[in-house]
Backbone:
């Protein structure tokens, strides 16, 4: 089975961490995030991979190469001049995927969901597409998917209503959310338009469903994390660090000077925290210098020379320039 890893997005909600790199290329505990996805697929014997790229494509290619270091074979599909969307990306490489069942996975997730069980559901249901879902008991802001008793997708809805603490015990029903893992048959290409931007959930699956084709749900269990915002990136990094009994990640060339305090933070390559500075729950980008005596809490910090306030995407958090650094503060 072949798989496509979706890695073309701009990562606007992760800005400024995505300056100069696409979202799946950001460091996660000193490795590119997409490495986790590649290794995950390889665990299930999936060795032929396609990675679509658009924003800062070299940031993935330079780190991952041809995949041989991970025991896989990689073909890159660079979308130029425009990004193509989830299904538009498939259209561009349909001749590589139109012979057998294949898998599509988002390149911004970390998971241990059992793919063999999901594939078995897909075969059993005779589905043209199977979406791997998870319960969302906390009703986090992930789009809700409604499913029939027979396990067919009925509707892709908006964000679930938050739990009312007063009624949560009386109404414990959980919503279901999509994990970004799809199992597909080549017949799905009958519903994917040629040569244009298209989105699987919005443009393709509803057409297949209206035509009577089965778009199935596999309700999984297991570990799953999605790193699409600065807050989630830090939270999940700290979660992994805590498993290892530490609370600070330092990449190569980092220096924390005597008298500096760094707590629950992630430091990328060659970051320097000078004497008397204090960082709490921060993400510090490549080559950033935190000057002596400076204090930051719940902030992402990159070099101001790497970008500018005028380049801030619409969905990104507000930023300010402080000395030589561009700083994004986030809630919590």
Residues:
């Amino acid at each position: 089975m072949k798989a496509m890893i979706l890695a073309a997005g701009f990562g606007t909600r992760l800005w400024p961490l995505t300056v100069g790199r696409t979202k799946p290329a950001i460091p996660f505990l000193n490795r590119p995030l997409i490495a986790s996805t590649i290794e995950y697929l390889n665990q299930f014997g999936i060795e032929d991979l396609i990675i679509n790229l658009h924003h800062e494509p070299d940031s993935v290619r330079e780190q991952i190469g041809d995949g041989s270091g991970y025991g896989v074979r990689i073909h890159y599909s660079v979308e130029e001049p425009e990004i193509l969307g989830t299904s538009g990306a498939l259209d561009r490489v349909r001749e590589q995927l139109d012979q057998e069942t294949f898998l599509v996975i988002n390149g911004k997730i970390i998971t241990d969901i059992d793919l063999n069980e999901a594939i078995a559901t897909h075969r059993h249901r005779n589905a043209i597409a199977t979406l791997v879902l998870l319960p969302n008991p906390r009703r986090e802001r992930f789009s809700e998917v409604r499913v029939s008793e027979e396990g067919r997708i009925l509707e892709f809805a908006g964000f679930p209503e938050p739990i009312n603490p007063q009624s949560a015990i009386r109404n414990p029903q959980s919503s279901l959310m999509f994990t970004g893992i799809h199992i597909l048959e080549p017949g799905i290409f009958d519903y994917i338009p040629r040569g244009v931007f298209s989105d699987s959930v919005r443009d393709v699956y509803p057409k297949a469903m209206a035509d009577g084709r089965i778009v199935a749900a596999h309700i999984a269990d297991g570990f799953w994390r999605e790193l699409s915002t600065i807050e989630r990136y830090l939270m999940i990094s700290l979660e992994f660090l805590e498993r290892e009994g530490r609370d600070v990640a330092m990449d190569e060339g980092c220096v924390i000077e005597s008298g500096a305090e760094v707590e629950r933070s992630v430091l990328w390559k060659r970051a320097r925290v000078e004497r008397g500075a204090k960082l709490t729950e921060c993400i510090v980008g490549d080559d950033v210098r935190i000057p002596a005596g400076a204090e930051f809490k719940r902030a992402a910090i990159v070099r101001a020379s790497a970008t500018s306030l005028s380049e801030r995407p619409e969905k990104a958090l507000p930023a300010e320039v402080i000395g030589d650094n561009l700083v994004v503060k986030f809630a919590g």
